[in-house]
Every structure is written in structure tokens, then in C-alpha cells.
């Protein structure tokens, strides 16, 4: 009997290999690991326009969990990833309607009873990742650990939104999870993750500015743990790139095999000053220490991590 891990690995490889072969000819493909459907009520046709305008060849849709009223969703205020995002079923159906160009992740509220079983059912159908986990739980909670184990069992990454006192609390303790689950690949994202590239980061500041001192918690996690990866998306990722450009180039050099491009952008056009995703692309291309490193961040690292052929 085919093992569950073999099933999911084979399914993803078949889907994405087909999709990469079908995308329009592009000398420099780009993988966006972080997008959402119905993001602040953005219509699907605008999502398609946005990704095409940015030159994205493969996009991963990250769904929300079930809409519920409980402490971990801030009594409903954080439902839909706090942005009215669609849930897993919609992400699956959208990806199936656009094979290859779009993939989908599976998600559920971390401490909801039955969350592991629900996510496992989606993984069996071909979800390529767990996330975006964006709920008010301790990052080392028993419920979180069940999902970390599940990700390792199915050989898919799990993407976590770290935000001080808001989502996935206790980032300074997360090294214990990296050690406990060495076969699970973790992708870090958001304010606490990117603020902590700075050794002198004030945890109460979500969007720090100014020069960066290397050696922060995130810098160490990326250096010390093979299973820690960085999602470059959102305003927090863009600010981390642009606040100290000299640091960014060196940071890219140090962690060139760990950084993944994601947009997490709710813009409709995919260009111009209102498109944070396009700005992040431009910053990566500007500040990468070499063309080879640029291509790793925009394509190769994600291709390898998600086994895209």
C-alpha cells in the first residue's frame, strides 16, 4: 500500500511538473509562496491579474481556518486571517481550476478540536503546505506540536505568522520546536520574525526602522537550524529589506539557501506604488549580492522545498 508521505509527494510533483511545463515561456520563473483568495474581499479575477502582472509563474494559495468565536481567533476578530480570506476548500478548487500555475495549502484553527484530522484530509487531497497558521496560541503549545508532527509526517512545510502578543506567541522559545521536530520544515513570517533579524530588536515594536545589528533571534535560527526558512512577504518583510540595505545584502549572502519570495499582497494591479509585492520583488533584485542568489530567493529555494520538479 502506498504510504501517506509517498502519496502526497507524488501528487505535488505530478501537479507542479505539469504546471511548470504549461506556463508561458519565461527565462526567469518566479514562485510566490504566500497569497490569499478573497484577501480584503479582492475578487479572484483581480488576484489572477495581480500575479500575472508581477510575472509570477507559480503561486501558493494560503487559506484561513474555520470561522469560529474563540480566544485563539480573538473571538472572531482574526477569522479569515484577519483579512476575510477564503478557507481551504475554496483554495483547493481555485488551484484545481488553474493547474500548475496555482497550488494550495491546508489550514485550520490550531486549537480547534479535530484540526489535525481536518488538515490531514486536505493533505491527502494534494495540499502542498500547512498554513498560514495565524492564531493566538503559544508557538510550542501541545496543539501546535500536533500540526508540526503532521507536517513532518507528510513532508510538507508549515508556515507560521509570528507577532508579539498576538499570534504564535513565545518566538524566543521556538528553537525548542526546531530541535524537537528536525524533520519538519518551518517557514517564518511576519512582524516578530522579521523584527528579530536585529540583535537589538524591541519586541514591542512591530515595524522597526533604522540600522540593523546582525545576530538577532531570526538570524540565529536561520543559521543554526536546517529546517528554518524565511518568507520574505508582507510589509514586515519589505521593511526588513529596505531599512538597512547594506545589512540586507549581507543577510542574503548568509542565508541565500533559506529565503523564499512571497508577496502576501492585497493589491489588484500587481504594479505601481500600491503594490507591496512588486516592491519586494524589486528590492530583492536590487539588493541580492549576485544573480545566482537572486534566482535562489525568487525560484530555486521554493522549487526545492516544495519539490516542484
UniProtKB/TrEMBL annotation:
Does this UniProt record's set of keywords contain Disulfide bond?
no
Return one GO MF term.
hydrolase activity
Query: Which SUPFAM superfamilies does the record match to this protein?
Result: Metallo-dependent hydrolases
Instruction: Give the keywords, sorted.
Output: Hydrolase
* Gene3D superfamilies assigned to the protein according to its UniProt record, in alphabetical order: Metal-dependent hydrolases
Q: Where is the Amidohydrolase-related domain?
A: 31-308
Protein name, as recorded: Putative TIM-barrel fold metal-dependent hydrolase
Q: Which organism is it from?
A: Prosthecobacter vanneervenii
Amino acid at each position: 500500500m502506498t504510504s501517506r508521505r509517498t502519496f502526497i509527494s507524488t501528487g505535488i510533483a505530478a501537479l507542479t511538473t505539469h504546471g511548470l511545463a504549461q506556463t508561458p515561456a519565461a527565462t526567469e520563473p518566479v514562485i510566490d509562496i504566500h497569497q490569499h483568495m478573497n484577501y480584503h474581499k479582492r475578487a479572484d479575477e483581480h488576484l489572477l491579474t495581480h500575479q500575472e502582472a508581477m510575472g509570477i509563474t507559480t503561486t501558493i494559495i494560503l487559506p484561513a481556518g474555520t470561522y469560529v468565536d474563540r480566544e485563539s481567533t480573538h473571538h472572531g476578530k482574526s477569522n479569515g486571517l484577519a483579512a476575510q480570506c477564503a478557507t481551504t476548500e475554496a483554495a483547493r478548487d481555485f488551484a484545481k481550476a488553474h493547474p500548475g500555475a496555482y497550488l494550495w495549502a491546508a489550514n485550520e484553527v490550531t486549537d480547534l478540536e479535530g484540526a489535525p484530522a481536518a488538515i490531514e484530509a486536505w493533505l491527502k487531497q494534494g495540499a502542498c503546505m500547512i498554513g498560514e497558521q495565524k492564531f493566538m496560541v503559544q508557538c510550542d503549545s501541545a496543539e501546535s506540536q500536533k500540526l508540526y508532527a503532521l507536517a513532518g509526517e507528510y513532508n510538507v512545510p508549515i508556515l507560521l505568522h509570528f507577532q508579539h502578543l498576538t499570534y504564535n506567541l513565545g518566538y524566543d522559545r521556538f528553537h525548542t520546536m526546531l530541535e524537537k521536530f528536525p524533520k519538519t520544515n518551518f517557514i517564518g513570517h511576519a512582524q516578530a520574525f522579521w523584527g528579530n533579524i536585529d540583535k537589538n530588536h524591541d519586541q514591542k515594536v512591530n515595524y522597526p526602522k533604522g540600522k540593523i545589528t546582525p545576530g538577532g533571534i531570526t538570524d540565529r535560527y536561520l543559521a543554526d537550524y536546517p529546517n528554518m526558512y524565511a518568507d520574505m512577504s508582507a510589509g514586515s518583510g519589505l521593511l526588513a529589506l529596505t531599512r538597512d540595505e547594506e545589512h540586507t545584502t549581507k543577510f542574503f549572502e548568509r542565508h541565500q539557501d533559506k529565503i523564499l519570495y512571497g508577496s502576501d499582497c492585497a493589491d489588484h494591479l500587481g504594479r505601481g506604488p500600491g503594490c507591496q509585492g512588486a516592491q519586494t520583488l524589486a528590492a530583492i533584485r536590487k539588493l541580492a549580492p549576485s544573480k545566482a542568489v537572486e534566482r535562489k530567493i525568487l525560484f530555486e529555494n521554493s522549487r526545492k522545498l516544495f519539490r516542484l520538479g
